[in-house]
Description:
Blueprint (H helix, E strand, L loop, with lengths): L14 H11 L7 E4 L9 H16 L3 E6 L9 H14 L7 E3 L4 H13 L3 E4 L3 H7 L17 H13 L8 E4 L14 E5 L13 E3 L1 H12 L3 E5 L6 H10 L7 E5 L11 H9 L14 H7 L3 H11 L10 H15 L1 E3 L1 E2 L2 E6 L7 E7 L9 E7 L1 E5 L19 E4 L4 E9 L5 E8 L18 E2 L1 E3 L4 E8 L23 E9 L11 E4 L3 E5 L9 E7 L3 H8 L1
Parallel strand pairs: 1-2, 2-3, 8-9, 10-23, 12-18, 16-19, 21-25
Antiparallel strand pairs: 4-5, 5-6, 6-7, 11-22, 12-15, 13-14, 15-20, 16-17, 17-18, 21-22, 23-24, 24-25
Helix pairs in contact: 2-11, 7-8, 11-12
The protein binds adenosine-5'-triphosphate and magnesium ion (MG).
Amino acid sequence: MSATDTTTTEAGRDFIRDIIQDDVDTGRVTTVVTRFPPEPNGYLHIGHAKAICLNFGVAEEYRGRCHLRFDDTNPTKEEQEFIDAIKRDVHWLGFDWGEHLYHASDYFEQLYEWAEYLIREGKAYVDDTPPDQMRSQRGTLTEPGQNSPYRYRSVEENLDLFRRMRAGEFPNGARVLRAKIDMASPNMNLRDPVLYRILHAEHPRTGNAWCVYPTYDYAHGQSDAIEGVTHSLCTLEFEDHRPLYDWLIENLPVPAHPHQYEFARLNIAYMVMSKRFLTRLVHEGRVSGWDDPRMPTLAGVRRRGIPAAALRDFVRRSGITKSNSVSEYASFEYSIRELLNRTALRRMAVLRPLKVVVENWSEGRTETLEAINNPEDPSAGTRPITFGRELYIERDDFMENPPKKFFRLGPGREVRLRYGYFITCREAVKNAAGEVVELRCTYDPATRGGNAPPDGRRVQATLHWVAAADAIKAEVRLYNHLFTRPDPGADGDLMADLNPNSLEVLHDCLVEPALAATPIGEAVQFERIGYFSADPDSTPGKPVFNRTVGLRDTWARVQTRG
Length: 562
Ligand code: ATP
Ligand code: MG
């Protein structure tokens, strides 16, 4: 476990669960109601998985409910494609909102009425100040803001103007509705925050019914109250918004009084969790799409072959705290390997093939041997594999002049072919360019199944291989980090930190026939190489595999070696 994993106490408790437990114990809350409130302006990422696991997780644990609520208050950036993708991803992660699917836009009428209520109470006003001027009147962290000259409008004038804003009489940006709180507050969020802005834009759900839209701050807490949310859990950047959240709840005739609690965002080294930036990567064609397996999106994670259970495990281990931190990438990989080691079927695949001819194996003869599907799970059984005169091994497993620590194949050396036989290299055949293109070998019939011969002779290495007689061609896509540094963008330019070698495609891989029918998305272990999963780009004649994760943390080793 990495250092970041020590933050959740043993029983899987954390400060949020402690608060909820206390509310339940004291009877302040009878049914725990949470919500996950994505803005449908992009695909969900691994950071969102933390919020999903927390909100749906505590609702399950306390037999309450968790709502999926689309925070669709900004029609210029939101699309149906994103709404559909978000639903798919939440389901994939293993959670279900049941009947509790909501949209902030469902509440537009109620929110509007409450805005008029604030105006009538003298707690909101229409401001005509141009945006730049309004910004400079807001003051700074060290200087108080200035009151807008429009702050003293009468209730009647405010009501009239706000209704005309709704009726579409004014262009975008001409006026806003602001709460009348305190321009001298040390909390900038309380300096007469904007509640409504004019936006002549078609909304995916409400069409052209509205041309004024509520801000996040105004819509969010009131939506929580309407839905009876008891614990409104969000990330730390909203901590300074909580006084405004509370002010609105206290000053409006809302049916319930939800509370907001903040926790630290999930970050992972070498990754960027920002929808805005991920959108740029997609729009600028830096990746193949939202579901590119290098993307930290849930769609990318899924396509890469990472099981939802591994992501849930990682999120659980990374804990819920109030201090920001960055998880090690290795910690994420740990969760993936730990699960796949138990579940993935073992297969043999040769990524960079080198031909082997077994000279003392007669031409045309093949033999069926037995290979174990998963040594961690006897119930996974065995499968037949073919041995023959022509085989392929990994190019890297042969060296003409092997150094001392290289135990694999070399001239005159003997190795075991997994589940096959011991073979000895007699000759390396080269092409005109001097490259080794074929190995001439012999096998020992007394080593069938890869077992040691009666004379007790031992070999130092076991290699994976495929038989030319039945191997099939495959494409394999190897992924590396999308960024070259653990803290992308630390120097101010994220794009400059993109890794130009984040994808390597191998077109001429040879895999055993059992891999031909690998269901899309299912993870398999290529023996000695790593975990892979079949990509949707696979065709009946040619499967395409994504490397989900390597067998060992080669990246960390490379880093420390420098
Ligand atoms: P981004 O910064 O990527 O655009 P966001 O916070 O704007 O994300 P929302 O759709 O508003 O995206 O997020 C929905 C919920 O997910 C919010 O409650 C937010 O706090 C939470 N969330 C977003 N990113 C993370 C993260 N990295 N870790 C934990 N929770 C997150
Ligand atoms: Mg947001």
